[in-house]
Amino acid sequence: MVMNKQLTRSALLQWLSVLVILLGLISFALVIGEADLSLWQGILAMFGHGDAVSVFLVQELRLPRIIAALLSGAALATAGCLLQTLARNRLATPNIIGLDNGATAFAVASIVAVPISLAAPVLALTGAATAAALAFGLSAGAGARGYRFIVMGIGVGAVFGALTNFMLARTDMDSANSAFPWTVGSLNGRPEQAIYWLAYALVLGLPAALYLARSLNSMRLSEAIAIGLGTAVKRTRWLTLMVTVLLTGFSIALVGPVGIIALAAPEAARNLSAAHRVPVLLSAVIGSGLMLLADLVGQHGFSPIEVPVGLITAIVGGPYLLWILLRKTQPRTL
Questions:
Q1: Is 138 exposed, middle or buried (0-12, 13-18, 19+ CB in 10 A)?
Q2: Numbers of helices and strands, H then E, in the chain
Q3: What is the pLDDT of residues 265-288, one digit of tens each?
Q4: 227, 328, 295: which is closest to 25 by C-alpha?
Q5: Considering only CA atoms, which of 78, 62, 66, 103 is closest in space to residue 287?
Q6: Where are its TM segments located (predicted)?
């Protein structure tokens, strides 16, 4: 009983710490820029009060970017948490198994071939689904730890990456410039419609992920144990892939490929949460914070130039991935 109370108190403290950090990042992003505001000015401007310049800066420039960062970070982190748990491998994230590249290739195709505002989100979703189907289909009979799934996903991602480069090389300069944010990952000037699409996807995907977490938890040791516990393994697997594709596709349609979020946020959430749970919600919150932090570094860390958020996460992501591969600690069960 005492131990349960200690665990509850520890979990509450961890949640409060994460939320305080996230609120601090949001406040910083709201008031810092070419024209700095006080926190009170920023809060008033959010609700349309204050001088016209402050209202414009907050409502038209900063707030949409903050919302885009929070939504995309949460979506990618949730997708990463689901995939890692399903494959029982920390490397099984949307960017590594090719979903990012599939969504990016189809989104770029929508720009260079079908210049319609609705096309990018729909085709990005289609691209993520195609990549997932190929990786999963080619890895039939994968081993218990899902390594074949990852290897096949890397191959699928390489094919889609080459297809993206081919399309950019063959198109005109204007179309290539328009497609650039979808190839590196950027939160600058994101279309409002894509933000709404991702918000709707999260409204559907996050509750679904929380629902699937219990079934995935029973599958972490082995599928045989999960079946013995009454888990519908095949249905859970397909539903997990569908939710992952939904969140990844619309996130890529908004910000482009930003891979490290799906890799790092679930890992951080597992280190903070109880070992026997799938930390879907905590992963989403941490993912939001990481995306916003990376965007802030890109905006203000290399002044006077702005570095796309995808490049910031790539700079950090390479060493982080090597650290995961090379660290000598004993692997623990997802």
A1: middle
A2: 14, 0
A3: 998 898 887 667 789 999 999 999
A4: 295
A5: 78
A6: 12-33, 39-59, 66-87, 107-137, 149-168, 194-213, 238-265, 309-326
Model confidence, pTM = 0.89
pLDDT in tens, 203-225: 999 999 999 998 888 877 666 66
CA dist 28 and 147 (Å) reads: 41
Contact 217, 186 (CB under 8 A): no
Q: Tokens standing for 64?
A: 């949409």
The CATH H-level superfamily of 1-95+187-326 is ABC transporter involved in vitamin B12 uptake, BtuC (1.10.3470.10)
Report the chain's C-alpha Rg in angstroms.
20
d(CA 294, CA 260): 10
Residue 172: helix, strand or coil by DSSP? coil
Taken in order 100, 105, 111, 117, the sign of the CA dihedral is negative
